[in-house]
Amino acid sequence: MINNGTLSLPQLRRRFEALGSETDTVDAASVPDRLGSRYQALVLSGTKVRAFDQDHYRPLVDLVTDADIPVFGICGGMQIIAVAHGARLAEGPQRVGGYEVQVDVADPLFAYVKPTVTVFHRHTLYVRQAPPGFRAIGRSGHAPVEFLRSDDGRVYGSQAHLEFRTDGMEILRGFAQLYQ
Fold this sequence. Notes:
Blueprint: E1 2-4, H1 9-18, E2 26-27, E3 42-47, H2 54-66, E4 71-74, H3 76-84, E5 89-103, E6 116-127, E7 134-139, E8 147-150, E9 155-158, H4 166-178
Parallel strand pairs: 1-2, 1-3, 3-4, 4-9
Antiparallel strand pairs: 5-6, 5-7, 7-8, 8-9
Helix pairs in contact: 2-3
């Protein structure tokens, strides 16, 4: 896990550990150049630093781009990935709490949920359009890109904080199944 400064890193780690995944954490400012064969997936947490600060996140973006394992960006982690690939962030209404999202259940990420999920939001920035090489696989009334996936199926992103709420846990389960 790459800690981008989220306050909920302990909850996110507990969720993955409850799914049987071992987790290591490194701060975004200390990411290695390469991952090595020890890791089966990479998770980018939410962030306090604005995702459009590309200089700050360049080593992280390079790591994600060069990795050959599944990657999942959560909230600010998704925004970092999207901005690095050409998306723009837009200010929107402040959302805190549970919100309904429609997801593409044909995607393996959503193998354990229904077409409408309730996920936890805590943000004001949104990705309005998936960048080139990605597509939206979840949407809501206030965010047309609630979830995204790279065209090759290796990189995922979630606008919501999946470390909270039951549907979030089940989406994390879907991601964990991609690399087990």
